[in-house]
Amino acid sequence: MPLTEPTLARVEELIARYPQRRSVLLPLLFLIQAEDGYVSPAGVAQVAELLGLTKAEVGAVATFYTMFRRRPVGRYLVSVCRTLSCELRGSREIAAAVAERLDVPLGGTDATGMVTVEEVECLAACDGAPVLQVNTENYERITREQALELVERLLAGELPPPTLAGDGAVTEPSTAALHWRLAGLGEPPPELAGRKPDEVTEVPAAFPAQPPAPSLTEDPTTRPVEELRTGVDHGGTTPEAGEAEPPSAPKPGEDGEPAPVDAGRHAAGQDPKGREAEAPQPESAEPDQAMDEAAEQAGPHQREQPGGEAQ
Amino acid sequence: MTSQVQVLTSRWQDGQAHQLDRYQELDGYASLEVAFAESPADLVQIVKDSGLRGRGGAGFPTGMKWGFLAKGTGKPTYLVVNADESEPGTFKDMELLERDPHALVEGVIVSAYAIGCSTAFIYLRGECGFAGRRLAAAIGDAYERGLLGRDVKGSGFDLEVVLHRGAGAYICGEETALLSSLEGERGQPKLRPPFPAVEGLYRAPTTVNNVETIASVPWILRKGVDWFRSMGSERSPGPKLFSVSGDVRNPGNFEFPLGVPAREVIMEAAGGMLEGKELKAWTPGGSSTPMLTADHLDVAMDFEGIQAAGSLLGTAAVIVMSTDVCIVRACLNFTEFYAHESCGKCTPCREGTDWMRKILTRLERGQGREEDLDTLQDICDGIFGRSFCALGDGATSPIVSGLKYFRDEFSQHVRDHGCPFQASPVVVGADH
């Protein structure tokens, strides 16, 4: 079980804060992440049992929020803002450079398990654009060179001070410690400070539908429109239906084929954001099918939102 | 001569105001005495009289919102503070929490007392480490000093405050989605009615208020309605935080009375345009509000003034774009945001944002067609007013306003088979 006795005792403290037990679901998922580095199948099962929910219900919630991760996250999570004020200052290049240095696609973790890099949406620090976070602490007005230097230090296990260090800001020493704090239990236990996943490449997929993050060179959002027209990313639908042109898209059945505008997209892989699809279905069906059930229950939307690692 | 004021920002430069002792030296928690001397009903009336309008984007009158709270339901009444600041361009609440976290705690105490709430929740964005540390410490200190918990300062009033972290979802800034999230559900909005004031958190009467709104309440109690109304306009009174970012010399948060001309915010407080750059477009209230242009610099930045100019004050987050910025790419950037953040509950928003993202991508890549412009407008018409919550409406703002003011720039992408702004720091879709 991911949560052991001493932590479970603290869980009671969390539960007591809320008028209804289920409100601790997000905090509990953070605790699972603190322990396992991601929302693990065993963690989903444990949370479900603690709260009297089904694993599907827990999985449906876990997949909705970008901060709940489907694969183990490195000791340091480098999040680069991609929204306009930061993009105008070159943040996209910074994210790409960091990913290239780590030799991973955006959303990936370097082979040593030290650093995960991702692009994220507006971090509410636009005056400091471009903004990069390490474990949710801001490094503002950062240049490409500074970002790369920061990453070298992180890979070496050093943690340079954040921009507002002079004001008292402190970067969390590990994502495990960060996730503990986000659960709302105060100061993280010291043993979480240095935690990182040992193996980042071969872990059981908690979310079987999760694909490998898109590679830098094959980001589907950047493919030429011809490819969009070929229907490559729309799977079984007709090329016309796959176009980004809803008003003129053929009605289902019009051309002899059922062609719901977007229906085949996910199934065929190549989700525009590259988050799902073409996920190698786990060879050995994971003993715990919580996430599958979650997908069933949550309906088709759940695949749209969970986002996170690829973004 | 600037019209900047220092109310909510008055303690920001102090450097130590996050510490309870220092905060109290600076008159912190002085509003408790005022509040506890009044009846809760009178406090609600004071906030109504002040004309305070919600600072989270919609601008709904706060006192009226409190007045809607159902009475005699046999259920508790909840105050939920929306600290899930994530509207692109907005960074006021986080700086407030970093520099002056007790201002929110004080506001929560007097507001909770006013509405008869004994358990308040603060839903804080998960990705903001420093603000989270500061706020958690402030709440802890307030408990230790008897400002929270049983019998607050000997008033007989009990108040528990729970700090709850979000887990990454823009939609949770929408109040019904926020409440769903707080209940341990997926953060998806709910149909209203019933409004949260009748059936909110745990189906009990609930008010959801923004950080800046709640932090404004102690000032109104301490300094009075007339003082508050001496700033701003009749229908949009009081001081307001403006977040300015983008192509300006001095981006940051600035506090002005509502109604300040945009020119003063952008060209004076924020230092004007970066060297050699010229103003092209700006959002008055984050990416969800229609862009305005250099022709709108004399617009009064209050709810009515901005609306008259065809946009919305929103969170007063001014993102400034220079003539070097490609509007198509700016629209694409925002649209990628909405496509990512759409919760998927309703079809117009879920599908529409993704269609728009695809069309803008191909326009930016030079593979668009002239009719794409009308298609974009059509999709926006199909989303606006037809989506479940305001996220869908917001997603149409950049595109509709982009087409309105810069239609030819969209056409140029078609005619030239590419983006005319090669100087852009990053070419969208560039292969690395």
Helix and strand topology:
The complex is a heterodimer of chains A (311) and B (432).
Chain A: H1 5-17, H2 25-36, H3 41-51, H4 55-62, E1 76-81, H5 84-87, H6 91-102, E2 115-120, E3 132-134, E4 137-139, H7 144-155, H8 175-182, H9 225-230, H10 239-242, H11 264-267, H12 290-298
Parallel strand pairs in A: 1-2
Antiparallel strand pairs in A: 1-3, 3-4
Chain B: H1 20-25, H2 31-36, H3 40-50, H4 62-67, E1 77-83, H5 92-99, H6 101-115, E2 117-124, H7 129-144, E3 160-165, H8 175-182, E4 206-210, H9 211-223, H10 225-229, E5 239-246, E6 252-257, E7 260-261, H11 262-269, E8 279-283, E9 292-293, E10 300-301, H12 303-308, E11 317-322, H13 327-341, H14 347-364, H15 371-383, H16 390-415
Structural classification of chain B: alpha/beta
Q: Beta-sheet strand percentage of chain A? A: 5-15%
Largest sheet of chain B: 5 strands, mixed
Helix-and-strand structural type of chain A: mainly alpha
Helical coverage of chain A, percent range? 25-40%
Give the fraction of residues assigned to helices of chain B.
40-55%
Distance between the termini of chain B: 48 Å
How do you describe this structure in short?
Helices cover 33% and strands 6% of the residues of chain A.
Explain how this protein is built.
The complex is a heterodimer of chains A (311) and B (432). With 311 residues, chain A is mainly alpha-helical. Chain A has helices at 5-17, 25-36, 41-51, 55-62, 84-87, 91-102, 144-155, 175-182, 225-230, 239-242, 264-267, 290-298, and strands at residues 76-81, 115-120, 132-134, 137-139. Chain A has a four-stranded mixed beta sheet with strand order 2-1-3-4, with helices on one face. In chain A, a hairpin with a 2-residue loop joins strand 3 (132-134) and strand 4. In chain A, helix 3 crosses helix 4. Chain A is elongated. Chain B is of the alpha/beta class. Helix content of chain B is 42%, strand content 13%. Chain B contains 16 helices and eleven strands. Chain B has helices at residues 20-25, 31-36, 40-50, 62-67, 92-99, 101-115, 129-144, 175-182, 211-223, 225-229, 262-269, 303-308, 327-341, 347-364, 371-383, 390-415, and strands at 77-83, 117-124, 160-165, 206-210, 239-246, 252-257, 260-261, 279-283, 292-293, 300-301, 317-322. Chain B is globular, with a radius of gyration of 22 Å. The N and C termini of chain B lie far apart (48 Å). The chains are: A mainly alpha (311), B alpha/beta (432). The interface between A and B is large, with 88 and 94 residues.
